[in-house]
Design brief:
Helix 1 packs parallel to helix 7, helix 1 packs parallel to helix 14 and helix 5 packs across helix 14. It contains 14 helices and 25 strands. The protein has two domains: 239 residues, 3-Layer(bba) Sandwich (FAD/NAD(P)-binding domain); 199 residues, Cholesterol Oxidase, domain 2, CATH 3.30.410. Helix 1 links the parallel strand 2 and strand 3. It is of the alpha/beta class and 486 residues long. The strands form five sheets. It has a seven-stranded mixed β-sheet.
Amino acid sequence: MERLRADAVVIGSGAGGGPAAASLAESGRRVLVLEAGPSLGTADFNGREGEMLARLFHNTAVEGTGQAIYAGACVGGSTVVNDALCWPTPPEVLAAWRDEHGLDGLRPDRWDPWVGQAWRDVHASPVTPGRVNKNAARLAEGADRLGWANEGMHRNVAGCSNQGLCNFGCPTGAKQSTLLTYVPRAQRAGAQVLAETRAERIVLEAGAVRAVEARRADGARVRVETPLACAAAGVLETPALLLRSGLGERNPNVGRGLQLHSSLYVAARFPEPVHGYYGPTMLWGITEFADVFGHGGPGFMLENTAVHPVATAMALPGFGSRHEAAMRALPYLARTVVLLRDRARGRIELDAAGRGRFHYALRAEDLARLREGVVAAARCYLAAGAEEVYLPLLEHAPLVREDQIDTVLPERLTPAGLAGLYAVHLFGGAAMGRTPERAVCDVRGAVFGATGLYVVDGSALPTNTGVNPQITILANALRITTGIGA
């Protein structure tokens, strides 16, 4: 077994691990970053959808429903493959974390500066009119005709070339992921990144961190002696890592409180070409139905999303000639995602091999709101002049008129009847809270009963946010690790 030493080990290099590594290294600590995925650079991102999906993503499925869950799996994590959207933490979410989870320290005057810091670090900026592609414009047009609130969103890019490859690693280096921002900062301050090295266990002695044990892709084992470990492997991995480390025996909340933004795609065919595979992959949102930022809606957003061939083919309903006909119309398709703020809660357990198993059942009210979101997306596209709308059902004919919606879409949706139910925004499993009776770590991210162990990724967030959480995770990681450094 290879033996190393570090002042701090950061497990993961995405939205939680990237800023954590930079913050700790810049405080003078000798930092080692363990990243299970490969180290790829801008020159490695060739835009080949199938190849990049295989190299850059980690996915699993929810037990019982088959709902797909995705996350980035490379140096830079999900920030390398996300849509570059940036939203500040909604004030309603912060208030709930204080009032319902006892995180009194997360007042706006203490939280907002970290959001501002993250905002600047990743160069978040508003979408300019010249960047609005036809895919986004169709969504905006329908919303305007229906009188719905909608807006261009902020994105963390600099010098975007409109190639539409955000989800496969930006080939020009325009997207300001942690791969190009925080990880290089950490390395300039002396941090070392071990890619393709998966953390297997955090070793605790007398209730304190003593080491992190990991395994390289070639099977070689590594033990890093350290008094400080920051878990930032994402919700797909951090709760499972804590369970493998025996933290579940100390705290029954480990792995509990999982929450998602369950999502569905709706596609529409227009009479003129849309070419939805070019331009920013996601840049326009309908906020009319949100329940954050002062909106009083049921709790979902509609956001345009790219029309990449593989991803579109996977989500379009139908089989055989019907599916082929829809795919032949690819240049004429626009797509949107229904992004639900789930109210369900789930849990993560270990299987016999020590991997995480996800148990998550959408509530009836969640499924009802998903249906409402699908209806809204269909109405929006029809209002914008779509000739056909494809609903996310396993088998149905396309809609051509609004009065067909209720005859085609079942009154009650079930996960088994949906095409492409998925989630990429994951929360909880090692959440912050006031006491160990209700949480895994405190407001500082410090794990109860484990001195020197912190959770700095989306696992620490007590609830979902209702908007894309990249900035919230970055800000929380900066807040926690700056506190450690101080």
